[in-house]
Structures
1.
Amino acid sequence: FDDPNGTLVAEHSYCSVELVLMLLLGYTASNVFEGDRPLDSMVLHGVKTAPGHVDVGFLSIFEHYGYLTVAPALKLPTEDTWVVLNESHFSLAARTGAPIGSIAGLFGPVPLEVSYYDQMLGQPGPITLKLVPDAGCAEGEDAPYMDKLLRTICPGVGVVWHGHEPLL
């Protein structure tokens, strides 16, 4: 913990990022960036795991906003499944179909599909999103939440929502 009085359960009985990282990595860190970073007279502790050694990853909408950077090991997990931090809660996204592998050469003959489920929205089941290059989809702050989030691992990607209105 960066804060010696830190806890795994945050205010309002919310799950902390430290607890999520403990479940994903087997150890805890107070930040999702890679390594340690000095800040004035203290050191902020981040993730110390090499890419290819994380089964389930982590994505955050706060990276889209430029508030933080998620470590590469968390962005490209071996199982292409992510715990997703929305502004107020965690949800889940997972690849369906061809594996992501690495960002280079992402788009092969089959478009990448991601299944997304957010229990806070009362969805009846997962939503399938297709990631395609330059699909002319919404950009900027008007873009749906998951479009912004998926562009943190696939910059410039277009997101097509199958049989569902985009969640804003």
2.
Amino acid sequence: MQIDAVKSALIEAYGADAAGVQVAAAPYRACPLGAHIDHQGGPVTAVALQLGVLLAFAPQDSPQVVITSRDFEGQVGVAFLLAFEKANDLAISAEENIELD
């Protein structure tokens, strides 16, 4: 099953606690009309396909989010500084932000 495979990949790559691993699924969709009118609040005639994206994630004690793909090489890191500040009742200056990046 694909869900078990992405969970296992996350655990193996990052040492995540298996009990904390969650998976979100987003099916691809196709609009027979070829329009993206749903973005402007219009009616949607899209149909879900049996293909999609699976995203495995797990909590960690860091404001850094690391994104990897099974289909593409490399990693992307994103620091959620504002959420980190709020959760920890902190105020970080622009200079400190640059250092953290």
